[in-house]
Amino acid sequence: MPVLILSSENKEREREIAEKIAQKLSYTTLNEQFLNRIADKHILERKKLGNAMGSTPSILKRMSEKWWHYSLSCVELEVLEQLVEDGCVCWGLSAHLYVMVISHVLKVRLIGGHDSISQSDRHKKDRHKKEIVRQQRNRERWSMAAFNRKEADPGLYDMVINLDQIQTDEVVNTLTTTLGYQRFKAMTYSTKNLKDQALAARVKNQLLKSLTDIHVQAQNGTVVVTTSSVKRERLKKIEKVKEIVGHVKGVGYLEVHWNKDIMTEAAMSCR
Amino acid sequence: MAIITISRGSYSMGKAVAEQVAQKLKYGLFSRDLLFKTSDRFDIPQKTLEKAIHDAPGVFEGYSHTKAIYLAYIRSTLTEMVAGGNIVYHGLAGHLLLNRLPHALKVRITANLESRVIRKMREGFTEQKARARIMEDDAQRRKWTKKIYHADPNDASLYDLVICIDKLSKEDAVEFICQSAARKAFESTSDHIRQARDLSFACHVKASLVESFPGVGVTCEYGNLLVYAAQKEAYTVKFKKILAAQKEQIGIHNLEVHTGVPVPVHAV
Amino acid sequence: MSKPLEILLLDDEAIVGKRLKPALGKIGCKVEVFQDPALAVKRISEKEFDIVVTDIYMDGMDGMQILDLVHKKYPRTKIIMITGYAMISLARESMEKGAFDFIAKPFKPDDLRAVIAKAAKSLGSSIQFDYNSVSG
Predict the structure, then answer these.
(1) Which end of chain C is more exposed for a tag (fewer CB within 10 A), N or C?
(2) What is the ipTM of this complex?
(3) Nearest CB to B169: which of A107, A154, A183?
């Protein structure tokens, strides 16, 4: 069965639409509540994990960059593994940023729909508008830092729907009909693609426990890890990657690509 | 009775989608005809108009007065053509030129670069040339909309619906657009028809004034026209003459000229 | 014992048929292998198969045409598309045109066996194969 991933700056309408669709199609739902299970499973502080999903690392928030990337990789891994069991509506877990080109996954962005909040008071409305712009900027900064993708980029989605003119029930009907199309049926190819992405996430998650600057791709059980370090630590880092990945279930063949960490080398040469 | 604008990048199959939507809804369809009509109406060569709305202003050119004039002419023709509803427009900047009409369904069709390159290659271009041409075209359009409308054509908030044609099919896109056009918000109610007519009046008057008085702003509500101009312009004989002719020609209820006040943001 | 599933396998690479025929034979299927699409079409015109497995990009005729042909002539037949040039648009198009499944090459014989078992199930037939055991 297909998977629907929603993304929106309007949390209330997003939830309403997601729940109605899930109910109509008898799909399971996957949302922020799932963070509780992730926090339990990976022994992460629940509140801190929630913060990591919305803000970038900072000393003030006692959130290191390393921990931040690791905690996000826990979310990515668990969500992907959950989505392999298809027939699901997913929102609030930023899955639109890490679930890429899977033919039975429909990704939809919902924009606008804020007007009803403060239509009467012009002053209030302006303030509200400013707040929305501020939130959008923060989300863009966060999504770029976390997954190197702009959340508002329409290229990430199959469809973008503006809620200013199109009502909740109309969106529900449109998306429900779309998900019923034959072309969104899960097939061996698309399920395998999703499993590959889940495998890559599993490998990344294991590596980020102790290493940084890790990129992973997987296809048909072959895993390619790209990393960087200063030149003299090259062999050590590659060995460590091999050792960790060797214990990950599902990995058939491993390739490690290494790039020189030019910034650190330059900083060290200036000392 | 909706007005549908379909914006598209080159080789995104937006034209085919627009044609099918028009066919399915039995609506009128136009794109380049806008330029033909504007050319006839204002006696300007089509090529000149096309260049004005396609090519972005050069580094030293700025947004020239000539382009502003041509754009006002094009907008005036467009608003007149869509005022009756039942229309699909898939030419450049429909969503921006008609942004004052809340009931116009604004759609963008997107496609990823790779599939667009493949479509261009079918015309006999090498991959490298196809890619370069498409990227150049995108850059021109982006520059143009940024310069004139301070907007990015890829900004999803400018549209009611953005559909990626690679992931969904052409038929899906047609289906969604037709379904959306039937929504209450896009119906041609008497109020919506009135708004479209008001915009058409305002654009018409702006087009008549823009060559001699480029700074004027025009609004129209319930057939009452307000023209915002500098004092020294408003007292000229030419200004008064143009407005008098317009009043007679298009049947405006009431016409007021405001001087010394800033032009409102919603004016054309 | 129920009648064995009859499968037509079309791929212009000889190795594919050579590898898959015995693999499917092991789960009790009767397989006819073709490399030439024209010959496969001729055979399809003579006989209704339970399952047709076809490559997409071949010389002379592509798998999408085979899909259209079989789907129109024998709506009951399950068609499985295999390709080395898998793309999301092609996958969605195949499903829209009525393919039962779409598999990207390279794949393991077990992957195809799992899909055949699913197809058999939807045809009301059964094959001794635990397709849940096949991992990605």
Answers:
(1) N
(2) 0.82
(3) A183
